[in-house]
Every structure is written in structure tokens, then in C-alpha cells.
Amino acid sequence: MKELLKNKIAFAGMIFILVIIAFAILAPLISPYDPTQIDSKDILSRPSAKHIFGTDTLGRDVLSRIIYGSRISLSIGIIAVGIAVLIGIFFGSVAGYYGGKIDSAIMRFVDMMLCFPTLFLILAVIALLEPSILNIMVVIGATSWMGVARLVRAEILTLKERDYINAARLMGASDCRIIFRHLIPNAIGPVLVSATLGIGGAILIESALSFLGIGVQPPTPSWGNILMDGKSTLGVAWWVTVFPGLFIFFTVLSYNLLGEALRDIFETRLK
Amino acid sequence: MPEKILQVKGLKVHFETPHGVVRAVDGIDIDVLRHEVFGLVGESGCGKTLSALSILGLVRSPGRIAGGHIYFNGADIVGKDERSLRKMRGAKIAMVFQEPASAFNPVFTIGYQITESILAHQKIGKKRAEELSLEFLEKVHVPDPVRVYHDYPHQLSGGMKQRAMIAMALVNYPQLLILDEPTTALDVTIQAGILELLLEIRQEEDVSMLFISHDFGVIAKMCDRVGVMHKGRIVESGAAGDILNNPRERYTISLLESVKALS
């Protein structure tokens, strides 16, 4: 934690993430308007004291929509990565620990999954299911666990040769106990880094999906579909697209900076 | 004749490699009597550690026990199923590893790991197990046992860790303690302290030891009987004094001479 505070850029990223999380949690308290309130008399008004980020084609306050959108975008990012990490840890640790045929089977499956272009895979799945928020989380999670699996497998491969794993086995610990109690806690550092970086990626994928109209469905605001709403009027009303775009940009940047900083910390500590 | 705690007969451990079978342990016989210290001595890579691991049933693929028997308290443990092996390990046979730095899991405290080891084998309450852990830490003479109990492995020196490791090996009152080069990774003064401790344990506890080392000085100090191992075979065995003073085999003689040449 101390080391994190020393890295000023990463610290700024962390602050920004905390602010966005506060936005998401306190949305009903801090947003100036109802994000779905249509006002036909006040469409596409410029940023002003009344509407700090202006209004969109239906007269909805862009700032309020961004604040409410942060709830959707962040929760999709975090939960999708959570799902990816759980799947990845499971397959990675089983592959690394047992080795041999089980390892080969799992890793070839991972290779196969990596061959699919992620976005098109997601498009295909969403086309079959309906584009609900839950489906989007699950689909993003289910298509982005391979990196974590490889990472965990590599960690487990080196960790399982340590004497304390022999000692645990000696103590009479079962395979399950050795994997979950002794190996995974030691392998969690790199996973945490990859998860932090992954949240940024997941937010981007969600934005892309929503921008294409198959993500979060209107009127529920997410950063991606606010962007989409603004694209038709980009020439006359830049504020509808630029502000959510900036939020996506800075949020993803912050997660990446934080992830990089965590990597530096874990690498010096573990090696 | 005192009873044999451990009797290894014709043990073979082979590794299947793409270049053929490697006979890492090639038919060894070891008897460890009750309350004695048996030394296994030999150069690096001669199969000492592997022999120890096979006694614990910890040989892993691509290695396998290709033949022979290991009788512990009269019962053969070769070919026993995983579940009954698990009950025996740690409780009846315990092991102290060469490298104290990697013998403790870095994410748990020393006390937690010792307590966990007690709870795995003894049917006692958590509170009692914690007290017992502390008692054993005192027994191995770590200064300030309470602090050590709450320390993480990286907070202790190598010697302290090895003492804690010995405490952890003893908590379940094993009948056989396997020590795999327990002092090799430590510097000389610490080494002397650990050996003193082991001799003291030998006096106080009812435990036999299989002491693996490449150091004749250590072997001479610790062991009643010695087996000299070379290329997976035991070339000579007998009372420690006989082997060290009147070696019969060429290999033993050359090994002893190489030590003399150094000192």
C-alpha cells in the first residue's frame, strides 16, 4: 500500500477510480436530474450552469446519464472480470497441479478459445441470447478467462515443486486442500494485476457492444450507449459524445496505471 | 535385537525418460532400528533424497517405485492407497527438508502452519493445538516463541526457520524422523546449534532418525550406523565408527580421502 502511494501516477489513477466508484454508489444523491427524464423543450443544449455537460437529442442531462452509466459500466467491468478470474483460476490451477493429459486437454481448450476473435464470439452469443446486462457480464467473463488460466498454470507449475507443498502433502493434506489452501494464495499476486488490467478491457468491450447497439439497451444508460446516442449529432453537439468518451478513456487508463503499479509491487516482492 | 522401525528391501525408483529408464535408486536395503540414528551418506545426485521421498510415498511422475518393499512397523507401504498413506505421513513419519526457506508456506504464519499440522492428525481442540504448538517451539529453543508463533516465514532467519521446521515435524510424535540435509543450507555456527538440538531430541523423545547428509563430520557426530550410497546403490553399511575408521569399499575410501584432502 505504501509503495502504491509512492507512485504518483498510479495514485492519481486510484483516486479517479475511487471517485467513479463513489459516483456509481451515490448516483441517486449526486446526479442533478433523472437520467431518463425527457425534456422536449431543452434538446441538445450546450454545456451550461444548468446542464454542466449539456443535454442529448431527447433533452436528457448528459452528466446524470454518465453518473448513472458508471453504475452499469463499472459493475459489468468488475463482475465480468470476477467471472473470468474464477474460471481462469479453476482451470489454470487444475492444469498446473495435475499436469500430464489433464494439463494438455485444458491448455489446448484455452488455445482454441484464444483463436476466436473475442468481439465476434460475443456478438454471436448475444445474438442468440438477449442482450441483458447479466448476459453481457457472463459472456465477457466466459470469453476472457484464458489469460488468467495461463498465468495461474505457470505460477502453480513453479510453486508445486516447493518444499512446503511437499510438507503439506506430508502432513496428509488432500489435493483439493493443497491447491486451494496452499497454492492459490501464493499465485494470487499476478492474477490481481491481470484482473485490474482486465477491468479496463471489460469496460471497453461493454462500451463497444453498447455502441453497436447490442450491449446495454436504452433507456438504461451505459457509457457505450450514451456515445451511440450522440454519434448522429456529433457535428452539432460534440458534448454528448466527448464527455462519456472521456470518462471511458480516463477510467480505462486509471485501471491500466493501477494494474501496472501493482505489477511492479508484486514483482519486486515475490521475486 | 531391537525392533526395526523401518525396513527397506530392494527398493528401486526408476524414471521413465525419452532416452530410456534412469535407475535413480537401484535396489537399496536400509534398516532403521528403534531409537537409533541411521545416516545415509553420499555425493549429490546419488539418490539419497529420492530414497527418503519414496519412504513417504512422495515419488511423483515420471518417477515411480519400480520394485522392492518398504516396511514401516512391519507393514509394507509400497502400493498402499493414497488415503492410508495420508494418515501415516506426518503422524508416524515426519520430514525436515534441506532448505528451510522454502519449507514453510510464505502466506501463513509459523504458528498457523504448526497448528494446522497438529489438527490434521490429532483429535484435539484448536485452543489445545495452539498451546501445543507453542510448547514445541519452546522445546526447539527459539528465543521468544510467542513472537515466532505470530511471525511469517520471511521474518525469521534460516536457523530459526529450521528450528521451527523441526518443531513442526515433532508435534505429532512421529516414530521416524527423516532429516534431509537439515544443516546444509545453514552456516557453520547455526549448524552446530541445530545438531545439538537434534541430539537433545534424540535423548528426550522416542524417535528414530534417518539422517541424510554428504558431510562426514555431521554423520560422525550424529549417527549410530551409516549406509554409504553411490549411484543409486548402498555400497557399504555398518556401525558409524567402523565405516569412518576402517572403510572397506573403494568408493567409501575415496570419499573419505577427498574430505581429508580438503581439511
Question: Can you describe this structure in just a few lines?
Answer:
Chain A is mostly helical.
List keywords for this structure.
heterodimer; A: mainly alpha; MetI-like fold; 12 helices; 74% helix; B: 263 residues; alpha/beta; 6-stranded mixed beta sheet; 4-stranded antiparallel beta sheet; 11 helices
Tally the helices of chain A: what do you get?
Answer: 12
The number of helical segments of chain B is 11
Unreliable segments of 5+ consecutive residues of chain B? none
Q: Provide the succession of SSEs of chain B.
A: EEEHEEHEHHHHHEHEHEEHH
Helix/strand class of chain B: alpha/beta
Topology:
The complex is a heterodimer of chains A (271) and B (263).
Chain A lengths: L1 H5 L1 H18 L1 H4 L31 H37 L1 H16 L2 H11 L4 H10 L3 H14 L3 H8 L4 H37 L11 H9 L7 H32 L1
Helix pairs in contact in A: 2-4, 2-12, 4-5, 4-7, 4-8, 4-10, 8-10, 9-10, 10-11, 10-12, 11-12
Chain B lengths: L3 E14 L2 E14 L3 E5 L6 H8 L7 E10 L2 E2 L5 H7 L4 E4 L3 H4 L6 H12 L4 H14 L5 H6 L7 H13 L5 E5 L7 H17 L3 E6 L2 H7 L2 E6 L2 E7 H6 L4 H13 L1
Parallel strand pairs in B: 3-8, 3-9, 6-7, 7-8
Antiparallel strand pairs in B: 1-2, 1-4, 4-5, 9-10
Helix pairs in contact in B: 4-5, 5-7
